[in-house]
Amino acid sequence: MISERAADTLAQVAAARAQLGDPSDPRHTAALAVVEAHLALLPAHGAETAETERLAREAAEVAEREKLPVVACQAWQLLALLARERGFDDADACLERMLAVAEEHSLPVWRVEALLRLGANAFLRSGDARRIREARDAARDLGALALAQHAEGLLAMDAVQRADFPAAQEIIDRCLEPSARMRNLGGHRYLLLVAATLAAHQGRRRQMERELLRFDQADESTSFLMPVLLGLCRAFCALLEENRTQALAELAAAAAWEDQHPNMFYLSGRYGLGPLLAVVGGTADRAAYAAALAAPAAALAWNRQFLVLTDAVLLGREGRGREAAGLVDRARQEFRGFPTGRHLGLRLVAEAALADGWGEPVAWLRTAEEYFHQAGVRSVAGACRSLIRQAGVPVAQRRTGRELIPEGLRSVGVTPREFDVFALLVERLGNQDVAQRLSISPRTVEKHIASLLHKTGSANRAELCRLARALCGD
């Protein structure tokens, strides 16, 4: 609630201090110190993290000494967030202390809060969400609905990263409206961001933009979730559109935001996807990779999959192709739980392997092409086919996918490739942009457009775009 009504909180803190009978009484000042430490973290306040941590640590020590267990739990919870900058072991140590205080003083809600945050850290590091599910079940048993919704949001984001899109959608459908009705604003906004990320990881930009508009309307402050929004959501969607320029711009915006604000979330791409793109593009070297690898965020499973591939690209460029190929094989096995991220990584690393002459890039591209074709992500599938051709290997044009074409278009003879072009007209893209998305020439796009105009009886391109929006709009 502090971040949702910061101005009101500041006024209330000032009023509370004015009412203190003895401002030096630690029982009075400890709780206020925790609130002030939270306020100092807000983007608009720009306080130093070290000062925020000092306030929180003093509050924790005073609260434990003065037998104020709730205040102690609040302080340790905040310290756990701050400790992530040093590593997740330090963060977990703070949460274990929070858990011990909650259990010692029979504070069941705070116990579940500690379990949930320990579970979230475990998930980030390993990709295993079992402890989050356990914390969610404990919150339900306790009747702590806001905590249960928080856990559901984390589980939905886990499902997005695992490409279990139906499971993510089920959680969103079940929890979004109740979270709004309960005025659980933090949980509600996070679910909206998950909904946008769900669309992004399927390459559905229009749906993503609609969900992000709802997120913006629900978020009256500069959100701590901004780096996740820019990196895990917007940048990832751009990559599934084969728009690397936009993806790099989104990642740069996320990094710029992080440079100006304390950041407690590490899925922005700065420590995983960003380094891989920079190394593949030739704008970063091993020193940049080493800097990313040294950050605590490199321990997160989602980031680690891209860093392993970054190392592979660098090794291949250094003439150590066998070692590089071994790392690609390791990534394919170790990160099977993240199929979309893993196959996107294969598509990127294969591009570098083709250029530098190592590994089995054609085999990797075939694997990625099959995955993205089945997922309906036409741009990446097309890019994989184009790269295979560039390697001098013939690749048959896919003729499957007719079941994806609406019956009205099938009946007039629209082909799967024409439908690929037609579907992109939803966004009113020009021929150059359509060609880039599908890895074909603008002249080929022009021919497909002419054929679509004839087959659908559309008078002009604008009418064809309106038909595309009617039939294919997400």
Care to describe what's here?
The protein has 474 residues and is mainly α. 74% of the residues lie in helices and 0% in strands. The chain is built from 25 helices and no strands. Helix 6 runs antiparallel to helix 7, helix 10 packs antiparallel against helix 11 and helix 19 runs antiparallel to helix 20. The longest helix is centred in the first third of the chain and has 19 residues. The radius of gyration is 25 Å and the shape is globular. The mean pLDDT is 87.
Quick tags:
single chain; 25 helices; about 475 residues; mainly alpha
Average pLDDT rating: 87
Strand content: under 5%
| Low-confidence segments | none
Q: How far is the N terminus from the C terminus?
A: 34 Å
Total helices: the number is 25
Overall 3D geometry?
globular
The major β-sheet equals: none
- Per DSSP E runs of 2 or more residues, the count of β-strands stands at 0
User: What is the C-alpha radius of gyration, as a whole number of Å?
Assistant: 25 Å
Order of helices and strands: HHHHHHHHHHHHHHHHHHHHHHHHH
Structural class: mainly alpha
Sequence-ordered SSE layout with sheet pairings:
Elements: H1 6-19, H2 26-41, H3 49-65, H4 69-83, H5 88-104, H6 108-126, H7 130-142, H8 145-161, H9 165-181, H10 185-200, H11 205-218, H12 226-240, H13 244-260, H14 273-280, H15 286-294, H16 301-317, H17 321-334, H18 339-356, H19 361-375, H20 378-390, H21 407-410, H22 416-424, H23 431-438, H24 442-456, H25 461-472
Helix pairs in contact: 1-2, 2-3, 2-4, 3-4, 4-5, 5-6, 6-7, 6-8, 7-8, 8-9, 8-10, 9-10, 10-11, 10-12, 12-13, 14-16, 14-18, 15-16, 16-17, 16-18, 18-19, 18-20, 19-20, 22-24, 23-24
